[in-house]
Design brief:
By secondary structure, the protein is mainly α. It has one domain. Helices cover 80% and strands 0% of the residues. It has eight helices and no strands. α1 packs across α8 and α4 packs antiparallel against α5.
């Protein structure tokens, strides 16, 4: 049975407390540093490209329409944050995937009171092929849908009006898929099974994803979104899904 008493958004917010928990902080640092380095460099580069684009655009705009810059710049920055927040997170999660899975494992042990299995850097290295294969599965699920959404941005008027909304909704769903998958994967649960579970509990999944997407768009705060989301998603797994899926494993084992 699922615990319906908490929203997905509240699980995300609980991640802010969990990353400060003694014994978990050291496992938060690696995803955090990866996030800071990649996000700072990539966003600065894209901002410079945007600046060059506006210099080029202003060459075609009459002087009496200079006031349009005050409208176009905020719209461009918001669009950049919405699109970039997920594209960046996808890349960052590929790089940090082995450490993200380890953080999720430690959070689950903390929340359930069970002893964490012994692990070292060589164990992480050995598990990398399986971990990256899982990330590739998520990427393969994401890319065709993302291309479809991005095409909408090139449709005049209607597409440019609805595209940011559709992209935000899609990003929220993918953020839920991305981060909720870590605890499922730690227990060797199939990717399609994980997706099916989230679809059955779509309200919680989407509210969790909304929060991740929103906080990913806030400067400085977006640096810590990755570990916060991992902790929050693991808390959601423990309270809403863990007992059901592990009990099913026990039932299968009994029949075997």
């Amino acid at each position: 049975m699922l615990d319906k008493s908490r929203s997905g958004a509240s699980y995300f917010m609980s991640g802010f407390d969990l990353i400060q928990t003694k014994g978990l902080r050291s496992f938060v640092l690696i995803p955090l540093f990866i996030n800071i380095i990649l996000f700072s460099g990539a966003f600065y580069y894209l901002y410079l490209q945007l600046e060059d684009f506006f210099v080029w655009l202003n060459g075609f705009i009459p002087a009496w329409l200079d006031w349009l810059n005050f409208i176009l710049w905020p719209m461009a920055i918001i669009s950049l944050l919405v699109v970039f927040s997920f594209l960046f997170s996808t890349i960052a999660n590929w790089i940090a995937a082995p450490f993200n899975g380890l953080l999720s494992e430690k959070v689950e042990c903390h929340l359930t009171g069970k002893l964490a299995p012994e692990s070292n850097f060589s164990d992480i290295i050995k598990d990398m092929p399986r971990t990256f294969k899982r990330e590739w599965t998520k990427f393969s699920y994401y890319i065709p849908k993302a291309i479809g959404c991005l095409i909408l941005f090139f449709i005049p008027l209607l597409g440019q009006t609805i595209a940011p909304i559709i992209w935000f909704l899609f990003s929220a769903w993918m953020m839920a898929v991305q981060y909720c998958d870590y605890p499922f994967d730690n227990h060797k649960k199939d990717f399609n099974l994980m997706k099916s579970q989230l679809k059955q509990d779509r309200g919680s999944a989407m509210s969790f994803g909304f929060m991740v997407t929103l906080f990913s768009m806030i400067p400085i705060v977006n640096f810590i979104v990755m570990p916060v989301a991992i902790c929050g998603a693991t808390a959601m797994w423990v309270e809403r899904y863990r007992e059901h899926h592990l009990n099913n494993d026990s039932t299968i084992a009994t029949w075997d």
